[in-house]
Amino acid sequence: MPASPAPTIVHGDYRLDNVLVDEQDRITAVLDWEMSTLGDPLTDLALIVAYSSRDLPTFAGVSNAHEAPGFPGTDEIVARYAKGSGRDVSALPWYAGFAFFKLAVILEGIHYRYSQGQTVGDDFDRIGDAVPLLISAGLAHLDRA
Fold first, then answer.
1. Mapping DSSP to helix (H, G, I), strand (E, B) and coil, where does residue 121 land?
2. Which phi-psi region, left, alpha or beta, contains residue 98 (left: φ > 0; alpha: ψ -120 to 50)?
3. What is the pLDDT of residues 20-48, one digit of tens each?
């Protein structure tokens, strides 16, 4: 595991779907804080990288905000974060691997509840198909770490 900076408040599920944006595309509020904790701020950046992956199926309950017109690519997001925060992002592949695994665990839990008849909704019958894709993406990021 890479050396961590001083802990900060991390959201735990930071993505475009969890922010309110005004007419000038400025974030005015961040919602959905139940997974927040103290930790390394790169964990939130890594989740944005995972949620922005263009290789994942959009049916999987994973955010598809990255398909919106004008949404920046992963490299641009990381570069903007590094410039704006002044933080070293060289360890990001490790954190991104962890983020993909985190999403895989969440989706596997949803898949299990669906298979037990405890969750209903569109595409839940296919949500388990995304788990191996998330694991593969996580491993690919770890290979770059």
1. coil
2. alpha
3. 999 998 999 999 999 999 999 999 999 99
Q: What are the boundaries of each domain within the chain?
A: 8-144
pTM of the model: 0.85
- Alpha carbon 1 to its chain centroid, in Å, reads 19
Residue 85 is predicted with a pLDDT of 93
Q: Specify the fold of 8-144.
A: Aminoglycoside 3'-phosphotransferase; Chain: A, domain 2 (3.90.1200)
Gap between the Cα atoms of 38 and 49, Å rounded: 20
The letter for the amino acid at 132 is P
**Residue 12: which of 65, 66, 48, 61 has the closest Cα?**
48
* Contact present, 134 and 104 (Cβ < 8 Å): yes
> What is the distance between the alpha carbons of residues 35 and 89, in angstroms, rounded to a whole number?
22
